[in-house]
Amino acid sequence: MGLRGIRFTINFTAKLISIGLLCVVMHQVQALKVDGLEHLSDITKKSQTRINTDFLLVKTLDKTKLLHKTYGEFFTYGAALFSDGSVKFVWYGKPGGGVNNTNKAIPFIRKVLQAQADSARIIGSAVVYSMHRENSLRPQLNVELEYYDGLAEVFSAEYTVTQDRQINWGRSVRKSNQSLIFHPESKKS
C-alpha cells in the first residue's frame, strides 16, 4: 500500500469515527430534546394559560371602558373564552336596560359560566364587577379570572372617570383566588 493508500485509509477511518461520534452526539441531543420537550411542554402550558388569561383580561378591560363611554355607568358582567379564541359576554341585564343589581348579577353570571365550564364549552372565564371599598377614595374594578387548568386569580384596579366618560386606571394588583367556575378539586376523582 502506497502513501496515497495510507492517507485514504486514515481519512476514511477518521470520517467513519467522526460519523460514529456524530451519531452518538445526535442521539444524546435527541434524548435531551425529548426530556427538554417534556419540560418545555409544562412551560408552554403555563405560558398558554397566562397568554389566554391576559387576553381575556384585556378584552374585559376594553369592554368595561367601552360600556362606560357608551352608557356613562358601570355594568356587572361575565366573559367566556372559547377554545377558538372568541369571547362572548354574559349579562344579568343588558347595558342601558336599567337593570344593574350587582347582588343578583354576580351569582347569576357565575352560574351561567359554571354551566358552560361543566359542559367543557369554555376554557376561560371572567366575572367583572365594580365596588367601592371603605376608606378608599377611588372605586375598584375586580375581574375574577379562571382557566380550565385550575388557574384562579383576581385582578383588581382602582379607577377614575373623567368628564367625558373615559376610564383611567390607577393602582392594580393580581393575586390568587378561589376557583368558583371550573371547580378543579371536584374533577380529581
Structure description:
The structure is a single chain. With 189 residues, this protein is α+β, with helices and mostly antiparallel strands. The chain has one domain. It is 46% helix and 24% strand. The protein is built from two helices and six strands. The chain has a six-stranded antiparallel sheet, sandwiched between helices. A hairpin with a 4-residue loop joins strand 4 and strand 5. The protein is globular and about 40 Å long. The N and C termini lie far apart (75 Å).
Biggest β-sheet description: 6 strands, antiparallel
Number of helices: 2
Low-confidence stretches: 5-40
How many extended strands? 6
What is the count of distinct domains? 1
Strand order of the largest sheet: 2-1-3-4-5-6
Secondary-structure element string:
HEEHEEEE
Rg is 28 Å
Estimate the mean pLDDT confidence.
77
Which percent range fits the helix content? 40-55%
The termini sit apart by 75 Å
Structural class comes to: alpha+beta
Report the β-strand fraction as a percent range: 15-25%
Shape assignment: globular
